[in-house]
């Protein structure tokens, strides 16, 4: 992979920092990479892709090497789904840059959702657990809904 790095929007940098466990915080994630992966998955689920307007200078861009192969799979799947073109998985720098761009925008969209959900929260872990629980029940309710359309001819 090229030397492209995953960037964070300036307006989301403090949120990302607060979501990572450290001496000062009790964040629910161990690394910035985990935060970005979670945010990108959430952004993709809600089809929320938000461009990064200003890049954070406080939070260094994340090297691609930090993303394990299982996390890289998510980046590739998001890219294929978004472009509907398998060529996005090419080894050239342009394809790599495009994959990163798509991932960054979905992560930024997910961070926006998280930011809204955590507004006023004291315990981020508890609020994220509630978010995940509501997402799960929302999905189960959609599956249980009785659909009469299959009986129409």
Structural features, described:
Helix content is about 55%, strand content about 5%. It is mostly helical. The protein has one domain. The chain has a two-stranded antiparallel ribbon with strand order 1-2. Helix 2 crosses helix 4. The radius of gyration is 17 Å and the shape is globular. The model has no long low-confidence stretch (mean pLDDT about 85).
What's the short story on this structure?
By secondary structure, the chain is mostly helical. It is built from five helices and two strands.
Strand fraction: under 5%
In total, how many beta strands?
Answer: 2
**Uncertain stretches:** none
* Number of H- or I-type helical stretches: 5
- Elements, N to C (H/E): EHHEHHH
State the oligomer. single chain
Total of domains: 1
Silhouette:
globular
The average pLDDT score comes to 85
What strand order characterises the main sheet? 1-2
Q: Tell me the Rg in angstroms.
A: 17 Å
Helix content: 40-55%
- Major β-sheet profile: 2 strands, antiparallel
Find the structural class using helix and strand composition: mainly alpha
Terminus-to-terminus distance: 52 Å
């Amino acid at each position: 992979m090229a030397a492209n790095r995953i960037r964070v929007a300036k307006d989301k940098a403090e949120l990302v920092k607060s979501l990572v466990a450290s001496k000062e915080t009790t964040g629910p994630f161990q690394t910035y990479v985990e935060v970005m992966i979670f945010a990108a998955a959430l952004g993709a689920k809600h089809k929320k892709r938000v461009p990064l307007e200003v890049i954070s200078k406080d939070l260094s861009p994340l090297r691609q090497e930090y993303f394990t192969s299982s996390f890289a799979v998510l980046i590739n799947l998001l890219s294929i789904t978004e472009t509907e073109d398998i060529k996005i998985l090419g080894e050239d720098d342009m394809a790599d840059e495009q994959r990163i761009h798509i991932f960054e925008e979905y992560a930024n969209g997910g961070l926006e959702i998280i930011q809204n959900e955590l507004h006023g929260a004291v315990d981020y872990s508890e609020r994220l657990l509630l978010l995940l629980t509501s997402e799960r029940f929302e999905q189960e309710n959609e599956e249980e809904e009785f659909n009469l359309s299959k009986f129409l001819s």
